Amino acid sequence: MILKGADVAAGMEAGLRAEAERLRQKGIEPKLGIVRVGTRSDDLAYERGALKRFEKLGIPAQVFEFDEGIGQESFLSEFRKIGASDDVHGILLFRPLPRHLDEKAIAGSIDPRKDVDGMNPVNAARVFSGEDGGFAPCTPSAVMEMLDYAGVDLSGKNVAIIGRSMVVGRPLAMMMLKRSATVTICHTKTRDMERICRAADVVVAAAGRARILTSSYVSEKSVVIDVGINVDSKGKLCGDVDYDGVAPIVSMITPVPGGVGSVTASVLARHVLKAAGLKLES
């Protein structure tokens, strides 16, 4: 089974449109601010998908682009201005940032109520403690949305996640633990990673390296979720999974493009609408 993001996103669309219209009737025009430093290919691919999805849903989105060499204080000043804007309800900051920028300080500066990608420590703590409320990172949330759509019950299942970033791997592990899965996080120091992944019921590739997950990592029972967004040597968009080699073997797989990314944009829209709705409560 090929689990396409378009099918999952289509199931979310009516609810998102209805909520956007409800907010407009209350005098609130939901708006997303996308903050990007530099021109990483994966950031640009995500940005294009998000803008396309928001346009389709009729939700405004504005890109704030900064040069890769911008200094810490200059960026923090501009970032805080965006956060203080009354017409921006949700902020998405592409990560990782260039190494000379202090990501922790920047994450701590965003208002948790506008932090629609779950990077502020307040929202991260909620995810790691298993609390509801706040905002979880959009990509892990999209993975969970797709598994739910496909009817994959995680309770008691073995899951292998390749990648330990705070953007995907770690928060996704916490979200899956909340569903009673047994989770192994794999990384560059993991021994016998192929065996661990092959034995798992669900394998999530979130390493950020093109086609590293090959057929030797999977079995016929595997459900494979590809979170990667990479550009190969031929300039072609691809995932972390060697799709042509893996797809004929496994029970379920997400493609790249056309998989998790399109659902991530819909989750992002849902978070922006939720953030805009908080203004009604204040």
Short synopsis of the structure:
The protein is of the alpha/beta class and 282 residues long. It has helices at 5-25, 41-57, 72-84, 103-109, 121-129, 138-149, 169-178, 193-199, 243-246, 260-281; strands spanning 32-37, 61-66, 90-93, 158-162, 182-186, 202-205, 223-226, 230-231, 237-238, 252-253. The strands form three sheets. It has a five-stranded parallel sheet with strand order 5-4-6-7-10, sandwiched between helices.
> How many angstroms does the end-to-end distance come to?
45 Å
* Strand content bin: 5-15%
| Proportion of residues in helical segments | 40-55%
- Average pLDDT works out at 95
Tell me the overall shape.
Answer: globular
Structural class: alpha/beta
SSE string, helix = H, strand = E?
Answer: HEHEHEHHHEHEHEEEEHEH
Tell me the total number of β-strands: 10
Main sheet: strand order: 5-4-6-7-10
Question: Would you write up a description of this structure?
Answer:
- With 282 residues, this protein is of the alpha/beta class.
- It contains ten helices and ten strands.
- The chain has helices spanning 5-25, 41-57, 72-84, 103-109, 121-129, 138-149, 169-178, 193-199, 243-246, 260-281, and strands at residues 32-37, 61-66, 90-93, 158-162, 182-186, 202-205, 223-226, 230-231, 237-238, 252-253.
- The strands form three sheets. A five-stranded parallel sheet has the order 5-4-6-7-10, sandwiched between helices.
- Strand 1 (32-37), helix 2 (41-57) and strand 2 (61-66) form a beta-alpha-beta unit.
- Helix 2 (41-57) packs across helix 10 (260-281), helix 6 (138-149) crosses helix 7 (169-178) and helix 6 (138-149) crosses helix 10.
- The longest helix has 22 residues, at 260-281.
- The protein is globular.
